[in-house]
From TrEMBL:
Residues 10-21 have a biased composition (Polar residues). One of its GO terms (molecular function) is transmembrane transporter activity. The chain crosses the membrane at residues 69-96, 102-135, 147-169, 175-197. This is Uncharacterized protein. It comes from Dreissena polymorpha. Residues 1-21 are annotated as: Disordered. InterPro entries: Acrflvin-R. Keywords: Membrane, Transmembrane, Transmembrane helix. GO terms for cellular component: membrane.
């Protein structure tokens, strides 16, 4: 097998050139040359030189392919690392938000329970004091006055209890609304972060 190449002749050294010079006869290394106008050298390369040339070309192409594969592998590795880091950050944010929400709910429940206990204790003390006063009034005043006093005391106690219950209900409602608002805001923030990362 021979490889035929057509090159412009540059005088004695046989290198490519834009100039046209006279061709030389058969050279010492076995190359045969023919001239046309402009002067062109047809070089017939022996089989072993053609094989070496083909090997060099294949090795160069193989090196280029290896570089492309390395670049693709590096890019894929960087993308995978970025995705893993982003997922870990999202998971950490979600866990932190859930923990904060749970802590807030527990604190709110404890506060509500303490407030209810205090209100009930105050109501019991008020009822005891009113009962003592009623007993004293019953002993001191006449029957009619005692009845009126009892009715007044009962009305006062009822009003006090109603006010306490209303206050407790209002406090509980306010606490529940605050907790719901906090949970909704946290869920919206987490959802926004997750959707934004998915969009990217």
């Amino acid at each position: 097998m021979t490889v035929t190449r057509f090159l412009p002749n540059n005088g004695d050294n046989g290198q490519p050139s834009n100039t046209t010079t006279d061709c030389k006869p058969l050279t010492a290394n076995g190359f045969s040359q023919e001239c046309t106008t402009p002067c062109v050298t047809r070089v017939i390369i022996p089989n072993h030189q053609a094989a070496r040339l083909a090997t060099k070309m294949e090795s160069g192409q193989s090196s280029s392919n290896n570089i492309e594969v390395v670049v693709v592998v590096v890019v894929v590795a960087v993308v995978v690392v970025v995705v893993v880091v982003v997922v870990e950050l999202v998971v950490v944010v979600v866990v932190v938000v859930v923990v904060v929400v749970v802590v807030v709910v527990v604190v709110v429940v404890v506060v509500v329970v303490v407030v209810v206990v205090i209100v009930v204790a105050v109501a019991v003390v008020i009822v005891v004091i009113v009962a003592v006063v009623v007993v004293d009034l019953v002993v001191v005043v006449e029957v009619v006055e005692e009845v009126v006093a009892v009715v007044v005391v009962v009305v006062v106690v009822v009003v006090v209890v109603v006010v306490v219950v209303v206050v407790v209900v209002v406090v509980v409602v306010v606490v529940v609304v605050v907790v719901v608002v906090i949970v909704v805001v946290v869920v919206v923030i987490v959802a926004g972060v997750v959707f934004s990362w998915q969009g990217r």
